């Protein structure tokens, strides 16, 4: 009689060991150790670029620390999780040390599969990069998310001070050919793939609709919305309040649309805790958004 050994499913401990081994390989400058943790079909991804790795390894020693690990879903053969790690770089040659943005905290969205007893990474996508100093502390203000060689849009920089963001930290920043995006997360949730609430500003070089009024009308007519109300409307701006269900969770959002001579902006506060915004918080964000609009129109 033959007995077949049942394959064990993936465990959280195995996934944690996977990323610990990945980070240890990075510190050890072990390119093969890095590559073998990725599925054979996925070893061409940019993270594993030979020339970039060799350049980094030749110039820097890297200290890695895993800060967070969050399991999103898992079954017997595949898993989805996030992890956050901090990398501090020091030059191999101390004489080469200089001020540069090399140290960062990066959060990754990861998909992994188990095949023939081995666990491999099939997706490895960074979704938040925060630059830190040599002590590992966040750089000040928006400097924490602006990559070397990039500049924040002047309008975004001008709008941020209108909002009280003491309990938030800039956690993500993206630059495209005709747009720019910055996202603030609650300080204790900077690593989360889906934080409980977010403050974001989008810049676009032009508005797609024929007017802000048309844009607003299109926005509130979306079928996915449970409720939508225009709180403030001018020729070049609007403030809209919406509620919708996302993955069976209520999301309550305030959205400002603002057309300026330099471009079009959408400023959002999303409260995704599964319940309506507390009245005092809703009033705060609405007041700050309206104040911004009034100041922009009077300038």
Report on this model:
It is built from 6 helices and 11 strands. With 299 residues, it is an alpha+beta fold. The chain has 2 domains: 12-131, Nuclear Transport Factor 2, Chain: A, CATH 3.10.450; 141-298, Protein Transport Mog1p, Chain A, CATH 3.40.1000. The strands form 2 sheets. Strands 5-6-7-11-10-9-8 form a 7-stranded antiparallel beta sheet, with helices on both faces. The chain has a 4-stranded antiparallel beta sheet with strand order 1-2-3-4. β8 and β9 (237-246) form a beta hairpin. The protein is globular, with a radius of gyration of 23 Å. The termini are far apart. 23% of the residues are buried.
Question: Nutshell version of this structure?
Answer:
With 299 residues, the protein is of the alpha+beta class. It contains 6 helices and 11 strands.
Give short descriptive properties of this protein.
299 residues; alpha+beta; Nuclear Transport Factor 2, Chain: A; Protein Transport Mog1p, Chain A; four-stranded antiparallel beta sheet; 6 helices; 11 strands; 22% helix; 40% strand; disordered N terminus
CATH architecture type of the largest domain: 3-Layer(aba) Sandwich
- CATH fold assignment of the largest domain: Protein Transport Mog1p, Chain A
Order of H and E elements: HHHEEEEHEEEHEEEEH
Kindly, what is the distance between the CA atoms of the first and last residues, rounded to a whole number of angstroms? 86 Å
Chain-wise SSE layout:
Layout: H1 12-27, H2 31-35, H3 50-59, E1 60-74, E2 78-91, E3 104-115, E4 118-131, H4 154-159, E5 168-175, E6 179-186, E7 197-204, H5 212-220, E8 225-234, E9 237-246, E10 249-260, E11 263-271, H6 279-298
Antiparallel strand pairs: 1-2, 2-3, 3-4, 5-6, 6-7, 7-11, 8-9, 9-10, 10-11
